[in-house]
Write a structure and sequence with these properties.
2 domains, flavoprotein, elongated, seven-stranded mixed β-sheet, single chain, FAD/NAD(P)-binding domain, 6 helices, FAD/NAD-bd_sf, Ferredoxin-NADP_redctase_2
Length: about 300
């Protein structure tokens, strides 16, 4: 799209809701922009159904990702570097060099990091095979899909307890499985999650061994650490809620990150501690993890970037 060797106004790294929203707005603002992503669509790809994307009552994760791509590719004046994974960002005297694993080098005045986060996996048999077929990682997104079903939630921190709360209006029964001897979540969240003893049970000191099923989840196998006994629980869904790791390695030596590795941003502008680098979406220290929020944060960042360039 743009000539070889040129310097971009903006390079967006990441192809989820934040990255794509940013690219659409940057193109409309006539910024010389490239979006670099190994894959377009984001984590929604693994959702069987998304029912909280504003303006679309219900859509599969795959179809939502396809609509993101279509919107992106409808923009004029935008370089789409799909299938390229960024390996390094180098600070220059008046901008940045973005280097990919394919050996491409791009120079830019500004960078918007929209690399998201990676959900921690159990790494047990059946988890990857049944992802999107009963194995889920977003209770806010997918809890309604498990109406009147028996479900297990793996994880005893706040995210696991919040998943139980999200499932309460839908699931017939939820079993919370935790690897330690006591839940880690804050007391108020525990009280809320465990208030209905008839709908929620807790298994502590249990190591998850496998998720069972062929076409769909049919159960979960775990080992009681105290006795060594292995047990199987019949469920139709398993929510893995053992935390997220932000994909911030590219900038950890360039900008401030918190103790969890999340990029610290100014919530008014999404600017980081380093001039010229912005961040949006799940890679940041924002409190909530939602597609709509990620997209909004990215738009905020692009508008701030545009204002900076317009003022020069």
């Amino acid at each position: 799209m743009f000539r070889s060797g040129m310097v971009y106004d903006l390079i967006i790294i990441g192809g989820g809701p934040a990255g794509i929203a940013a690219a659409v707005y940057a193109a409309r603002k006539k910024l010389k922009t490239a979006i670099v992503a190994d894959m377009l669509g984001g984590q929604s790809l693994v959702s069987a159904s998304v029912e909280n994307w504003i303006g679309t009552p219900k859509i599969s994760g795959f179809d939502l990702a396809e609509s993101f791509k279509a919107h992106l590719k409808a923009q004029d004046g935008l370089d789409i570097k799909e299938g390229e994974k960024v390996k390094e960002i180098e600070a220059l005297e008046s901008g940045f060099r973005v280097m990919t694993e394919k050996g491409s080098n791009y120079e830019t005045r500004a960078v918007l990091l929209a690399t998201g986060s990676a959900r921690r996996h159990l790494n047990v048999p059946g988890e990857r095979e049944l992802e999107g077929r009963g194995v889920a990682y977003c209770s806010i997104c997918d809890a309604p899909l498990f109406k009147d079903k028996d479900v297990a939630v793996v994880g005893g921190g706040n995210s696991g307890l919040e998943a139980v709360v999200d499932l309460l209006p839908y699931a017939r029964h939820t079993t919370l499985i935790h690897s330690r001897g006591a839940l880690k979540g804050d007391p108020q969240t525990q009280e809320h999650a465990l208030a209905d003893k008839g709908k929620v049970s807790v298994v502590l000191n249990a190591e998850t061994l496998a998720i069972l099923g062929d076409q769909w989840v049919t159960g979960i196998r775990y080992r009681e650490k105290s006795s060594g006994a292995e047990k199987e629980l019949s469920v139709q869904g398993v929510f893995v809620e053992i935390g997220l790791d932000p994909n911030s390695a590219l900038v950890k030596d360039l900008v401030d990150v918190n103790e969890r590795g999340e990029v610290v941003v100014d919530p008014r502008t999404q600017a980081t501690s380093r001039p010229g680098i912005w961040a949006a979406g799940d890679v940041t220290d924002g409190k909530y993890r939602q597609n709509n929020i990620s997209a909004g944060d990215a738009v905020k960042a692009v508008l701030n970037i545009y204002d900076r360039w317009k003022a020069r």
